[in-house]
Amino acid sequence: MNLVSGQLPWKYTLPEFPAYPVLDEDIHCDCLIVGAGMGGAMLAHRLSGSGANTVVIEKRTVAGGSSQANTGLLQTANDKSLTSCIHTFGEDRGVLFYRLCQNSIKGILELPGKLDIDPYIVPRSSLLYASTPEDVGMLRQEHEQLLAHGFDSEFWEKADIARRYSFSKPAGLYSRGDAEANPFRLVHALIAKAHASGVRVYEHTEARRYEFGETGVVCHTGHGRIYARNIVFAMGYETQEMKKDRGAELINTYAVMTHPLSVLPKWHERSLIWETARPYLYLRMTHDGRIIAGGKDESLTAPERREARVLSQCKRLLEEIEALFPEVKGVEAEYAWGAVFGTTRDGLPYIGQHPEYPHCYFIEGYGGNGTVYSMIAAELLGDTLAGKTRPELELFSLTRTSKPSPHQTVL
Ligand SMILES: Cc1cc2nc3c(=O)[nH]c(=O)nc-3n(C[C@H](O)[C@H](O)[C@H](O)COP(=O)(O)OP(=O)(O)OC[C@H]3O[C@@H](n4cnc5c(N)ncnc54)[C@H](O)[C@@H]3O)c2cc1C
Hints:
Layout: E1 4-6, E2 27-34, H1 38-48, E3 54-57, E4 73-74, H2 82-89, H3 91-109, E5 122-129, H4 136-148, E6 154-157, H5 158-164, E7 171-180, H6 183-196, E8 200-202, E9 209-212, E10 217-220, E11 225-233, H7 239-242, E12 248-258, E13 272-275, E14 282-285, E15 291-299, H8 303-324, E16 333-344, E17 350-352, E18 360-364, H9 370-385
Parallel strand pairs: 2-3, 2-11, 3-8, 5-13, 11-18
Antiparallel strand pairs: 1-16, 4-7, 5-7, 6-7, 9-10, 10-11, 12-15, 12-16, 13-14, 14-15, 17-18
Helix pairs in contact: 1-6, 1-9, 2-3, 3-9
The protein binds flavin-adenine dinucleotide.
């Protein structure tokens, strides 16, 4: 699958990244992780501390899939609001999902001290603004729901927003406890640390065929076989080429990163910013003073069509930046890209086992919070592989009945 188009960001921030060999022999392991994106990297790092004999294979290079297109926002709030989660899954399960996301960010914030490559993880606040006056009531309801369940939330009126930002919006929810990261550096940092702790990592090594047996799985690659007791598939959106999930949908999305700004706009606490409209616009600043904006989602097209759309979609994103922050008028994009993006009909990722694949687990962190979901998956599957029961996995079951898409309703 052709995952990305245009000029991608991030590599400039890590000019000399580690490289790993091609697998050219037969090997054995307890756990084989297929894919070295955010999902595979989080789990490899987690397992490296458990003593499990772990192997990671990657058909491209580490962080060479969708993770290199990731814009690096880490939020407790999801594409699907807490109100909507409670409505769809019930109070206990809806709140559990939000609690797992919140704890996942806490775990991610602790990572830098454990890694040798700095992943530029910084705690941030978030502003979710009402795109139209009609959305204010839903925001107020969401605010009350968040407070009732112990999550951080402040309801800001129009004047509260105008005081802190260059723009004015009908209302907004301000919250603390979120974060930003450089996803490319984060994936490399996790894999490098796991490798230093004994995890074997192979690049340009594609899993091509599997033999599922009573006691494990044999994975065939171009130049060697891997005999694994368990396999974790962390192949991102390309999992859909192996096992179609009825509730998963792939679309195109776009993003832009400006040159470093000479004038910093009126932007409260460099917060993460997003809105109630669907598809939504989202923005953040980078550690070196650039603006990243993303959105303009549209149906999945052939890669050539997506490539051709990058410039026009990113021009529209720049116009949105200027509309919010007039003081950066004329700002230009240094990087502009489009990519495949995955969502699910009910707004939850897929994590866990599938009855048709013995000794196998899947990490499909589909949705705007893929990094947070990858951390949740690493914790839940890390414990499961160590023999512990994690009942939370039931939330993310691959065989659950699909419910309506969060993209069909606002909040
Ligand atoms: C434009 C854009 C912006 C985004 N912004 C954010 C954001 O702000 N915050 C956020 O949390 N998430 C964001 N996401 C989502 C996030 O990028 C993804 O959820 C996450 O990076 C995906 O990680 P992954 O490991 O699942 O997939 P990938 O990074 O694609 O990794 C999967 C890897 O598996 C490899 N692979 C596939 N098949 C095989 C095989 N047969 N053998 C060996 N290797 C194989 C691939 O080469 C790939 O490297 C964004 C996504 C896009 C596209």
